Design the sequence.
């Protein structure tokens, strides 16, 4: 669901402290116990971009996850319950980006497999589908589902394209082994071609909202 996120004050203060830490300029850094799962460089990319175009083949994008869905994802990790809650709070705080004035144009391509993969139970998945529907219906972003029939995109790793007013565009590509930023123009151009194919083959925003509403009511 959309709206203000509530969480325990101690967890919130810790998440806020982590989010406010200065960035040292490295694209990626090794994880440390208790730190957020998302590198600070990714958060910096999100908050300074003019537009974001993202593709996720297996899970719902972090910027669009409901609290229950995110919590279930972290519950499958080796983090302690306290560390899990820090990560959930931090992930939800990132979503304020989509609600503020002057927000970037955000376009999310989500493979249908991500909607069908059971995370938690059916109630968690229904809530997540409604969360996606509301985000798309309120105009906060564009959400388009890539049908399972589009097999060429079924196993591709996730990535995001960040475009800026006065700096080169950059790609953040993520896999099981980690993530990396790419800003070499030739490589960025290849990902742009993938996005064009996605725009051609994904369900329209209207049909996507119909599908999400049906899944939320299933």
Sequence:
């Amino acid at each position: 669901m959309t709206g203000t996120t509530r969480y325990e004050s101690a967890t919130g203060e810790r998440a806020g402290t982590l989010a406010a830490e200065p960035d040292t300029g490295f694209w990626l850094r090794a994880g440390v116990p208790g730190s957020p799962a998302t590198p600070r460089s990714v958060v910096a990319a999100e908050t300074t971009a003019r537009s974001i175009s993202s593709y996720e083949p297996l899970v719902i994008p972090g910027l669009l996850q409901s609290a229950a869905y995110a919590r279930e994802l972290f519950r499958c990790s080796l983090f302690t319950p306290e560390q899990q809650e820090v990560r959930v709070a931090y992930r939800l705080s990132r979503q304020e980006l989509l609600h503020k004035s002057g927000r970037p144009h955000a376009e999310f391509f989500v493979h249908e497999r991500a909607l069908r993969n059971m995370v938690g139970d059916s109630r968690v998945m229904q809530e997540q589908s409604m969360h996606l529907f509301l985000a798309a219906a309120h105009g906060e972003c564009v959400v388009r589902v890539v049908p399972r029939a589009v097999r060429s995109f079924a196993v591709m790793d996730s990535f995001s394209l960040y475009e800026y007013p006065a700096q080169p565009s950059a790609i953040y590509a993520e896999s099981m082994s980690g993530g990396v930023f790419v800003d070499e123009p030739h490589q960025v151009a290849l990902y742009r071609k993938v996005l064009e194919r996605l725009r051609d083959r994904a369900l329209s925003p209207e049909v996507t909202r119909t599908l999400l509403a049906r899944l939320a009511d299933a």
Remarks:
- Confidence is low (pLDDT under 50) at residues 1-19, 21-37.
- The chain has eight helices and six strands.
- The first strand starts at residue 51 and ends at 56.
